[in-house]
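Running log. JK asked me to keep both predictions on one page so they can be read side by side. First protein, sequence followed by its tokens:
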Amino acid sequence: MESLTNAALTVALIMCFLVACSLFLPYSRNGRTKAQQIVKLIGLALFVVTCVSVGLLCITVCFP
């Protein structure tokens, strides 16, 4: 139970870190779009993982 909560918090922190990185990426003409696409893909994947882990957390809390 606690490990699931810790995992969800860790994923949320990583997501916040990635969003911050995407905001402060160096805006070079060549690498900008590819770097932003990679960050968006990683952020999307982490968002899905976060939703799943929060869903699992709710299930374990509501249905012991």
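And the second, directly underneath as requested:
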Amino acid sequence: MSSTTEIASSFIQDAPPGELQDVVKDIQSLTSDTDPFLLSRLKPAFQKYNEEQLATAELPARTEPVRSIFSPSSCGHYTDMSSAKVIISKYNRLPDGRYFDSESNTSFDFDHVTQKASNPQPYTHPSPHRDLIASLQMCISNYAHEHYASPATGVYPTTAPSDSDSDPDPDSNSSTLALLLVSNRYSPSNFWSGRWRSTYVFSPRTHDHHGALLRRRQRQPDHAQARARGPLRTTGILLLRPGHPPRRKRRIRSR
């Protein structure tokens, strides 16, 4: 990897929440004359950033009607999520490079440079836990919309779909589910932006669960930076109780 590519990749990884396109414009303005093909070599860096930051995108409307996977259940109420954003992560990346959304049963292309989703198609993941995924998705969606601003959520199997025709073994040790929650607040005109990310991994076989929460803040006042150097990190445990929305216990530490 050339020094220019390494430097530009570091710029991408340090992009503040909601400001990746500003970084892209800066890279283009600095290298358009000397290295016009640099952006094409930076695709791995863009993918790493979007998946680690749990980037969100608006999913274009499909031409055919979308059947919701949700119905009223023990979570208490039904929320219409037809216009919700989709999450980009390693958990919902398909082998062909597309991504899927468990909420709308849709797969789609994603441009990691422009952060735009396109070409939505019907898709259902061949997981043995489809009913559990649907139930957890509804619960975490309702919970997130009650407690977070403009959230996006997703529940995904942590193993990629197999080419085999047989269903995966639901009792396999590797058969776990990832529960993701993202909330973004952007206000560049006021010199701040922030992103909340929660990732939990749950084992249906053992009922074990562990997770991490990251809050990333940028452009803080000097006195705030002195109190919390770098992103605030928390580790948490998601509490899953039948008939109740998810709750969490958390321990917080700064670094």
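Observation for JK regarding the second prediction: The chain has six helices and eleven strands.
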